[in-house]
Write a sequence for this structure.
């Protein structure tokens, strides 16, 4: 056996040597099928030649080259020995199927003729894999150049009736289909425009703007739109309402535009029949029935039905019935169009809070979280208190997320409250800048610690809920340095203490104003979570310098330094849903301050200010109306009727932050030289209606009315009105909006100010 294995390599070597000594007598190509390639083309792709030594390795490479042309389904070689010892080399080639036709399916944007120009396959020739791949790549590139990067192209061969194959390119263009119109067939109860505002698939007046992608058809939202329409009709008692069909008709010649048609069957409205409550144990059913807002004989309303459920829960939730359910069961009569409603009560059991567990707080101390909770051990397990606790913790600004739920406990009649927090980063360093028509160009650096504990070095001065900030701002018209500290729970009670030291220098047109001082205040919530009172003291050094020499004597007399010692008191009520970007709620603030020589100041004067704003949203916060007003006055205590307050305390209006359409600080009483010397009274009313444009961009139409005047001389005279339109841009991750406003003074009573279109630009943001 060993000898046999030793002989095999020798035989193989001798055979290879023998064949290598042979010459190729001829090279023949035998082609199967109806299509015939020219001999020159076949010879071009092989290196084996007549008269050359036969080399099996070369023949294998020839086979690979023939395969790589992409035309052949099979290639193999054969040798026949001749009497003279040479060989005839025969290549058997089987071409691929003949391409009989090229078809495009799914193409709407471009015609098949246009797409065929990108394809290099030849009809009547065998299918070429290489050219097929090149054709698919060329089609994708063609669509990409036309702005359609999401196109999907697949190849599918099918047998042709004449033999061979038909090459089909299946194309999914994934067009960004835009809504050309939305109509409602069978709509009689509501105006079509009203229904169009209640659904997500809407036509946009800005759909033509490139890159905004507004007014796109969202097929995933169509089912939700059906629910939205159904809820809208249920609010009016149309319980038989249904959307029978949604038609999407492509606009002829414009495959990227579609007319959306909702075919409605409104039915008839239902009247409330009998209303009852059953299942109550803690409270009698007849007492619970008084909470129900549905009234027999009145039109049915799903809104009143939901309100009734909430009212029924109001009595149970404070008592700890955390598992309480009130399920309305409708019993409609399709003949009389009356509906009986039975509210089925499942009370469950009342529970007390056994323990409140807090987790996820790596840095924030446990007592800092617990002092904000609206629920504690021994309290009833009240759903509203749990939700209020979650809201308070989120309002602290320390956490990305707060989960608060009730869970079973080992003691009967009790539940535990499980609160999980996800802490935010508490150290922030921000470098950025901004520009506005009032403050000019400025750069800013800010260092903040939002969860500080100044008395705990072992925990790296962290976790006590205190806040500290250092700010430096340097600009063309403003320079400021500030250091702030806040203790929200002074002496362990909800009493906020703020202290701040600052140095500021502002460059105005005709002078500069420098302030160096310190201010401190105490703030306490009263009545509820929305109302606060505050009192504090400010001491500062104020200097008017670099005043122009050509100003009037009245203004030049204000040059120099003063001290301000001021006690200030305020009451504030704020129900806005967001301080940065409010959509609902209101804010009212009353401020009074007394500056006196007895408090360390240079003058005796008093300031009174009342300001407020209100926000109303429409159509699911699509449109937001904001209205604001401010009235203020400042006067000397020793000579109220004749003396003016210091220049640095007077009111100057105009610009992007007050009355748009007028230059910055241009509105106010003028002196003998025609220069604005500031008023001791001001009033300002503003209204703004904003609407969405694209993602974080909103448009806003506005009107501003106001003036800075002398309260001793008909203070509400000389009103100024500016109207205009602007953009509000909220960049993701930036905590300040960019405001671009174009305004015109339609009523101009300010001496020396020309009426012309003015642009107001305000941008402030942090880079990182």
């Amino acid at each position: 056996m060993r000898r046999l294995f030793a002989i095999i390599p020798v035989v193989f070597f001798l055979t290879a040597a023998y064949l290598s000594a042979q010459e190729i007598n001829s090279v023949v190509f035998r082609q199967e099928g109806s299509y015939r390639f020219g001999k020159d083309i076949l010879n071009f792709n092989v290196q084996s030649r007549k008269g050359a030594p036969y080399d099996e390795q070369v023949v294998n490479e020839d086979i690979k080259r023939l395969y790589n042309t992409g035309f052949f389904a099979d290639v193999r070689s054969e040798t026949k020995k001749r009497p003279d010892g040479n060989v005839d080399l025969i290549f058997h080639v089987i071409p691929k199927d003949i391409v009989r036709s090229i078809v495009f399916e799914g193409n709407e944007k471009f015609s098949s003729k246009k797409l065929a120009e990108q394809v290099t396959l030849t009809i009547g020739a065998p299918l070429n894999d290489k050219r097929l791949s090149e054709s698919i790549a060329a089609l994708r590139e063609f669509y990409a150049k036309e702005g359609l990067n999401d196109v999907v192209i697949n190849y599918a061969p099918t047998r042709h009736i004449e033999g061979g194959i038909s090459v089909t390119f299946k194309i999914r263009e994934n067009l960004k289909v835009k809504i050309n119109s939305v109509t409602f067939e069978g709509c009689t109860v509501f105006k079509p425009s009203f229904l169009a505002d209640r659904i997500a698939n809407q036509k946009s007046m800005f759909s033509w703007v490139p890159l905004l992608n507004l007014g796109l058809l969202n097929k995933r939202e169509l089912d939700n739109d059906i629910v939205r329409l159904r809820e809208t009709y249920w609010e009016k008692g149309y319980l038989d309402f249904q959307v029978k069909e949604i038609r999407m008709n492509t606009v002829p010649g414009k495959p990227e535009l579609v007319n959306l048609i909702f075919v409605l069957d409104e039915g008839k409205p239902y009247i409330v029949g009998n209303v009852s409550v059953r299942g109550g144990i803690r409270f009698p059913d007849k007492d619970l029935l008084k909470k129900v807002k549905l009234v027999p004989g009145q039109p049915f309303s799903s809104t009143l039905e939901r309100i009734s459920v909430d009212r029924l829960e109001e009595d149970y939730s404070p008592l700890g019935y955390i598992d309480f359910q009130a399920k309305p069961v409708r019993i409609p009569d399709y003949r009389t169009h009356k509906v009986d409603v039975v509210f089925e009560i499942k009370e469950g059991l009342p529970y007390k809070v056994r323990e409140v567990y807090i987790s996820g707080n790596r840095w924030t101390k446990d007592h800092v979280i617990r002092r904000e909770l609206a629920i504690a051990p021994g309290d009833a397990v009240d759903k509203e208190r749990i939700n209020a606790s979650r809201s308070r913790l989120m309002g602290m600004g320390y956490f990305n997320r707060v989960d608060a739920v009730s869970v079973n406990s080992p003691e009967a009649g009790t539940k535990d409250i499980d609160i999980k927090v996800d802490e935010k980063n508490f150290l922030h360093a921000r470098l950025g800048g901004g520009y506005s028509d009032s403050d000019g160009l400025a750069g800013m650096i800010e260092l903040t610690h939002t969860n500080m504990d100044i008395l705990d070095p072992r925990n790296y001065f962290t976790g006590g809920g205190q806040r500290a900030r250092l700010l430096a701002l340097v600009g063309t018209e403003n320079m400021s340095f500030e250091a702030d500290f806040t203790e929200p729970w002074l002496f362990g009670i909800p009493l906020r203490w703020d202290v701040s030291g600052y140095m500021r220098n502002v460059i105005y047109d005709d002078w500069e104003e420098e302030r160096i001082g310190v201010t401190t205040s105490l703030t306490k919530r009263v009545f509820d979570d929305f109302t606060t009172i505050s009192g504090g003291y400010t001491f500062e050094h104020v200097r008017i310098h670099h005043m122009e020499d050509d100003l009037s004597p009245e203004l030049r007399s204000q040059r120099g330094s003063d001290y301000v010692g001021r006690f200030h008191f305020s009451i504030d009520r704020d129900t806005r849903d967001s301080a940065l970007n409010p959509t609902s709620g209101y804010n009212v603030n009353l401020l009074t301050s007394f500056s006196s020589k007895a408090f360390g100041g240079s003058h005796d004067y008093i300031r009174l200010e009342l300001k407020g704003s209100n926000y109303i949203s429409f159509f699911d916060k699509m449109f937001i109306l904001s209205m604001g007003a401010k009235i203020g006055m400042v006067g000397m205590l020793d000579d109220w009727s004749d003396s003016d307050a210091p220049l640095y305390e007077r009111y100057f209006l105009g610009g992007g932050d007050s009355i748009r359409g007028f230059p910055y600080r241009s509105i106010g009483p003028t002196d003998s030289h025609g220069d604005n010397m500031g008023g001791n009274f001001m009033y300002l009313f503003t209204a703004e209606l904003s609407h969405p444009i694209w993602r974080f961009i909103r448009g806003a139409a506005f009107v501003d009315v106001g003036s800075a005047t002398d309260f001793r001389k008909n203070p509400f005279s000389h009103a100024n009105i500016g109207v205009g339109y602007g953009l509000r841009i909220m960049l993701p991750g930036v905590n300040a909006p960019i405001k671009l406003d174009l305004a015109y003074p339609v009523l101009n009573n300010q001496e020396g100010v020309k009426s012309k279109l003015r642009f107001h630009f305000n941008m402030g943001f942090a880079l990182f």
Q: What stands out?
A: The longest strand covers residues 531-545. Residues 1-6, 10-20 have pLDDT under 50 and may be disordered.
